[in-house]
Records
---
Amino acid sequence: MAEQTTHPANGPTSHPSNPAPHTLEGWFVLHDFRRLDWPRWKQLDPVERVRVAREAAKFFRDAAAVKEAGRGDSALYRVVGHKGDLLILHFRPSLADLNGLETGFAATALADYTIPTYSYVSVVELSFYQSGPEGPRPEVAQDPAIRRRLYPQIPGARHVCFYPMSKKRAGQDNWYMLPFEERGRMMHSHGMVGRKYAGRVTQIVTGSVGLDDWEWGVTLFADDPVDFKRVVYEMRFDEASARYGEFGPFYVGIRTEPEELVAWLCGEQVGPGAGSPAGPVAGS
C-alpha cells in the first residue's frame, strides 16, 4: 500500500474552557452529482453512443484502479429521483487529486452530455471526545484500526445514501456553546445508535467546515435501502439530532459498475464490437 499521511490532530483551541474535540483527517472526498441531458443523448447515433459510453466506462475503471495501490478509491451510482442521474464518488489523498479527476472526466465525451446539479467537498474525519480535551495519544494516529477508518475503500454495498448536516447555532440550541463533556456524552449516545446497524449499514463521516456549505457530510452504504430509513429515523430521536441537528438534502443511488453504465446509457447489452448490440437489457 502506498504511504498515507495522517493529517495532524487539530491544535490548541483559543477557548480552553470550552475546547473543540481533537480530530484526525484522512482521504479528501468529492461527491459529484450529474444530470444526463437525455434529449441530446438520444439524438446521438447508436454507434456513437456506444463509443462515448465505453470511453466513460474506461475512465471510471481507471479511477477505481488506484485502490490496488492504496491511493484512494472511486465509485459510480445511478441516482434515484429528480435530483440527478449520476453520483461520481472519489476518495483521494489531496484536493489536487480530486481536481485532477474533475478535469479528467470533463475531458470525456460523456461529460458534454451531463449537467452538474450538486457537489460536495470534504475530508474523512474522526473526532475524539472520549479522549478528553487533551486529545488522543499521538500513537493513536498509527493504530491500524484508526487508519482503516481514515483511509477506507468504498464499500461494495448495492446502495448509497448521502446527506450534509450541521449543528445548530441558534439561541439556546447552540451546540458550540455546550460544555465539552456534554457534547461528548451526546455524541457517545448518538454513536451507540449507529452501532446497532453494524454489518448492515456502513457510515463514513466527512468534515467540511471551511470546505463546503455544511459542516459534515454523511455517506451511508447498505444492500437494503430500507436500512437507511431505519437508522436515520432512529437517530432523529437521539438528543444530538433531535435538538441540535440540521440536515440538508438526501440523495440515494444504486451502485453501477462501468459495464453496467454502458448498458444503462445505451439501453441494451453491448457486445465486443462497437455498435453491436446483443439484445435488450432487463431491469436496467
Note: The radius of gyration is 21 Å.
---
Amino acid sequence: MTNNTEIRLGVVGMRLGLWHADAIAEIDGASIVAVADNVQGKLPGPNITLDEWASSLSADAYTDGIEMIKHADIDAVDLCVSPKWRLPLVEAAAERGLPVLLEKPWGANLTHGAAIADVIKKSNLLHMVEFPLRYFPPIIALKALLNDGPIGRPFVVNAEIVMGEMPAKTPGHWMWDPNNGNGAINENTCHVFDTICYLLGDPVSLHAYGASYHGAATALPDGIVASVRFASGAVAAVTGGSLGANALRTPTWLDVYAEKGQALVTGIDHMFDTLTWGRVDDSEPTRSHWPNPPLRTLIVQYALEEFISSVRSGNQPASNADAGMKALALAMAVNESVATGESVDLRG
C-alpha cells in the first residue's frame, strides 16, 4: 500500500468499539466501513439500532463478527471483544490475511493466549495488541532517555495504575470470569506490565501480595503490589487493581531510577501526560507536558495511529503477540503468587 492509501477498517464489538470509532474519526486516512455486534444494547443509545449507527458511518452492519471478517470489503480488523470470543475471529482474519488489532488483555489465560499466538505465528499475520500507554509521547520520550540516553541504564522502577473500585464490587462483570477477563490484574494492570516490559525488557520472576478485598471473585485479587525482576537486573514494584476512588480519575505514575539520573511520568485517566527528569548532577529538572486527548475514550488514539500506519506500510508493530504474552504471564503470575505466597519463575 502507498502512504496515502485509505485504510478501511472492520470493527467487531461495539461497546469498546465505540471508543475506537471516536479515535478513528480523528485519524486521517482511515475509516470504518463495517461493524459487527450481536447485542443491540451496546450501541450509543437505546433507540439506535446497529443498522442506523452503521448507516451514520456509511458502514455495513453485521450481527456476526466472523461473517463480517469473511465478507466485508476491509483492509484490517479491529477486535474490541473480550478475550473469550477472540480465537475464532483471529482465525477468520488469518484465513483472509487481514491484519488484526486485538484489545488488551491478550488472552484469558496462558493456554488461551498461546492458542491465539499460534494462529498468528503460523499465518505470519500482521497484528498488534492495543496497549495504549507505550504509545503516549511521555513514554516514548522516557524510552529515549534510558540506556544509551542521558540517564542511562534503568535500575529500579515504581509504577501504578489502580482504576476505580466499581468493577471490584461487580461480580457479574466479565472481568471476573476465569475464562474471559480472569481478574482486574489481567484486564487492567496489564497496562503497567506492558509498559515496564517495553522499558526494561524480559521479566524473569515475580512475587506479589494482595487479596480480593471486595470479594467480587475470591480467587482473583482486586488489589496487589508485585515485585518483578528483569533479565537486565532491573527491578520494578507495581501497584495495581481496582480499589481507586473514581473522583481521582485513575492517576498514573511511573518513576525510574537509573544509572545517571531519574525520570518520572505522571497523568490521569489512564493517560500519561507529563515527563520530569534530571541527571544526578543537574541543578534543575527538565519537564515536558503533552495535553491528553480531550476525551477518555480517545486513550486508544496513539495506538490506533500506529496500527493504521503499520497496515499501510506492512511493518509489524512492536506491541505484538510476544508483548501480549509477557503481560499475560505477569498477570497470571500475580494471581498465582497471591494464592500461594511464593515467587513465580517466568523463564519456563
Note: The chain has two domains: 7-131+303-318, 133-293+325-345.
